[in-house]
Write a structure and sequence with these properties.
The chain is an alpha/beta fold. Helix content is 28%, strand content 27%. It contains 11 helices and 14 strands. It is globular and about 55 Å long. Bound molecules: nicotinamide-adenine-dinucleotide (NAD).
Length: 346
């Protein structure tokens, strides 16, 4: 089997996990790693990944030294959440004539926030004969692609309500700050107002994907962020929450078509939800014909699933027609377990 040659750009929590997953796959060959961390640069990629063996390629902070289309089929990039911030790096990948998968939340549907940047990426990809996809667990899978796929049996859809209830406890200090965990309710309100507490990144993107795929005609999206105030003491290695303080953020987004709410997405994220009897899970409700109620519990594991879907999409993105793609444009993702999974499908 001819292997897909992949470079991993960004070797943080997600990027290093994806790179390790690539090492387990018969149809993938990890041919390079890019990161700017001084403690990684120059070291063997296998050593940085803790893979237990050397890979014979050093981690570099100089993308130009590895972006050679004769040697690389695709770059997976895991550096930031924001399209604008990732734009210079995405342009370098596409200009080099190499396909790209990004897990930046905004890249799931970049046209939702930045139509101009989306058009620029689409044009650049087409000019260079390659494709670019944004994916991840959410946005990219649970609250958009799964919803769209379930609607595939419906005669009609009147409205959709989906929620993902998860546990933030495994995450680090950045996530605690951006979700407002450990603040007071007043501090939470201030953080939402000044933009330092953002909640979930990805609702406009997910609603855009659902609306476009089904033709729901959403023209307006409203978002609200409320503090989840704890009744009990909760603690992680990064934050302590006394009763009365904020344990998480209940983020809701509603998409309207002609002033009628047609898509409601709910994502309450908090540390240790079980301490107040709250289980975790993913719930999709489609009201129409037939009515559909799907639930999984506990939640589909976010980090593992992000690594999985990004790596599993590699053959689809290499095979895709040139341009900017979303998860709704490409064949269904499937775990890469054997040779037939790697066959090029368009
Ligand atoms: P992280 O902070 O652990 O890792 C980021 C890595 O990228 C770091 O090693 C950093 O040194 C490196 N880096 C950043 N900018 C770089 C640049 N321009 N060039 C080279 N290296 C650079 O973050 P993470 O947990 O791995 O997540 C990465 C991003 O993916 C985050 O923004 C996160 O929100 C997003 N994400 C999205 C989903 C989804 O469902 N779509 C899921 C998980 C994570």
């Amino acid at each position: 089997m001819k292997k897909f040659r992949v470079v991993q750009w960004g070797l943080g929590a997600m990027g290093s996990g994806m790179a390790r997953l690539m090492l387990e796959k018969d149809g993938l060959e990890l041919v390079g790693g890019i990161d700017m961390r001084p403690d990684y640069v120059g070291k063997d990629l296998g050593e940085v990944l803790g893979a237990g063996r050397k890979l014979g390629v050093a981690v570099t902070s100089d993308p130009a030294s590895v972006l050679d289309k004769a040697k690389v089929d695709l770059v997976v990039i895991a550096t930031t959440s924001w399209t604008k911030e990732q734009m210079p790096d995405l342009k370098r990948i596409l200009s080099a004539g190499i396909n790209c998968i990004s897990i930046a939340e905004e890249m799931s549907a970049p046209e939702a926030q930045s139509p101009a940047l989306a058009a620029e990426l689409d044009a650049l990809a087409k000019a260079n004969g390659v494709s670019i996809l944004g994916t991840g667990v959410n946005p990219g899978f649970v609250l958009d692609l799964l919803v769209v796929a379930l609607s595939g049996v419906c005669h009609k859809v009147e409205r959709i309500e989906a929620s993902r209830v998860n546990d933030l406890s495994p995450y680090g200090p950045t996530v605690m700050k951006t979700q407002g965990v450990g603040t007071t309710p007043e501090g939470f309100a201030k953080g939402v107002a000044d933009g330092s507490i953002v909640g979930h990144v990805g609702f406009p993107e997910s609603i855009r994907m659902i609306s476009e795929a089904l033709g729901l005609g959403v023209t307006r999206i409203e978002e609200s962020r409320e503090p989840i105030v704890s009744k009990v003491y909760r603690e992680t290695p990064h934050v302590k929450v006394q009763p009365g303080m904020v344990a998480g953020c209940a983020h809701v987004a509603v998409g309207y078509a002609n002033d009628k709410p047609v898509v409601k997405l709910v994502h309450p994220q908090q540390i240790h939800p079980h301490l107040e009897g709250q289980g975790t899970g993913d719930y999709i409700n489609i009201f129409g014909k037939p009515e559909i109620h799907m639930s999984t519990g506990p939640e589909i594991a976010g980090g593992i699933a992000t690594m999985g879907v990004a790596v599993n999409m590699i053959p689809h993105v290499v095979a895709a027609t040139p341009g900017l793609k979303s998860m709704c444009d490409l064949p269904v993702p499937a775990a890469l377990m054997g040779e037939s999974a790697y066959r090029r499908r368009v």
